[in-house]
Amino acid sequence: MATDLSQKLFTEALRSIPGGVNSPVRAWNAVGGVPRFIQRARGATVTDVDGNTYIDYVGSWGPMILGHAHPTVLQAIQTALRDGTSFGAPTACEVELACTLTAAIPGMEKVRLVSTGTEATMTALRLARAATGRDKIVKFDGCYHGHSDGLLVRAGSGALTFGTPTSPGVSAATAAATLVLPYNDLTALDRVFAEHGREIAAVIIEPIAGNMGLVPPNPEFLTSLRRLTSSAGSVLICDEVITGFRVRYGAVQPLYGITADVTCLGKIVGGGLPLAAVGGSAAIMDQLAPLGPVYQAGTLSGNPLAVAAGNETLTQLAKPGVYERLDEKGARLEAGLKAALKKSGQRACVNRVGSMLTLFFGLDEVVDSKSAMACDTAAFTKFFQGMLARGIYLPPSAFETWFVSMAHSEDDIDLTLQIATDVLAKV
Ligand code: PMP
């Protein structure tokens, strides 16, 4: 497989872009090798600058649920494009998107459109602090909520340790306001609310975690979280940037019998263009300027091209049977991977919810960040490289979620499984 042009571009990129990439995981540091520079994508495939075509399970990290370059989404963008690309003034199509989102997400009476998931979660925290007059935030180890200062914090030793910054440049004071708990750990959650409940402005959670690999929640954990936040007067923020419209039409919260005070959306709602959203009860959202004192703004917020792509993507997803089909595709991939693993004698577990999935090597169960981190990353690297060489493009890290789209056919999945069986025999 030729990679000369990707190699050449990466060498050039390293001179002018830090690490050669505009988002770290694209550099493939976890798996090594030359990151492929993508020329074009169609349906379930991406094609690199050297002309290699791969079946893609990255899906731009989640947004491409309909597949790449979906014809009606492209058409919607083209139609919008003819009228201009940005006005810095309100448009009819953003009202349409806001109405679609508020109708689909329980508890979302009002919503503001932003450009990235990072902005959505950052605004959610500001709203929660303003609403409660409190400072402390609780997040869960292994959940990622974008790169704003207060959320770039990992656990210290022990569940109740106040956070230390994960990144230089985040002040100790900012990190200290963020408490980090293990995901799915009810005891730690009970303790933190018993000790600090009245100081906690908000708890932010991925209701299905997708950033330590895929880790489903223990349903009881989410219902307890809802109960504890309500009784302490803390704001519950569900970060559904990945899960929103991925597992079902709307949020995943109803699957677990909870309704967040604030929900963050991103990825799918922008149909592959830069768009995200933060919404919740009118009481919380009406704190935002110009109605209220909480400041938030964006030159490109509600950008007409992004909104057009989002509206059309959600229109397609509202059609009957979409999520059943996505679940069938995910189930086919899961079952085939498990059979291939069994045949190879490899120890591994597969976590899946709908069209999201992660294969963890060397483990029987993954329920939180600690168990995820114990996986065999060397085995994953061999698997990743073997799959890549045979035309399957997986996320380049053991701790990422694979995304299946509507464009993945049974044949695509079966070919992936046939290759996986061959590759696993050599891992
Ligand atoms: N929240 C979650 C759950 C995410 O997965 C991500 C990005 N992967 C973000 C927030 C941040 O979104 P963005 O990259 O658009 O800033």
Summary of the model, kept short:
This protein is α/β, with parallel strands linked by helices.
The N- and C-terminal alpha carbons lie at a distance of: 20 Å
Strand fraction equals: 15-25%
Order of helices and strands: HEEEHHEHEEEHEHEHEEEHHHEEHHEEH
Low-confidence stretches: 155-161
Q: Specify Rg, calculated over alpha carbons.
A: 21 Å
Mean pLDDT: 96
Task: Outline the structure in words.
The two termini are 20 Å apart. 48% of the residues are buried. It is built from 13 helices and 16 strands. The protein is globular. With 427 residues, it is α/β, with parallel strands linked by helices. Strand 2 (45-48) and strand 3 (53-56) form a beta hairpin. Helix 2 (71-82) runs antiparallel to helix 9 (304-317) and helix 10 (322-344) packs parallel to helix 13. Helices cover 37% and strands 16% of the residues. The strands form 4 sheets. Strands 4-12-11-10-9-5-8 form a 7-stranded mixed sheet, with helices on both faces. Residues 61, 116-118, 121, 144-146, 206, 210-211, 239, 241-242, 266, 276 line the site of 4'-deoxy-4'-aminopyridoxal-5'-phosphate.
Draw up the topology in text.
Blueprint: H1 4-16, E1 38-42, E2 45-48, E3 53-56, H2 71-82, H3 92-104, E4 110-114, H4 117-132, E5 136-140, E6 153-154, E7 164-165, H5 172-176, E8 178-181, H6 186-196, E9 200-205, H7 219-232, E10 235-240, E11 262-265, E12 276-280, H8 282-285, H9 304-317, H10 322-344, E13 348-353, E14 356-361, H11 369-373, H12 377-389, E15 392-393, E16 402-403, H13 410-424
Parallel strand pairs: 3-15, 5-8, 5-9, 9-10, 10-11
Antiparallel strand pairs: 1-2, 2-3, 4-12, 6-7, 11-12, 13-14, 14-16
Helix pairs in contact: 2-9, 3-9, 6-7, 10-13
The site of 4'-deoxy-4'-aminopyridoxal-5'-phosphate has 16 residues, from α4.
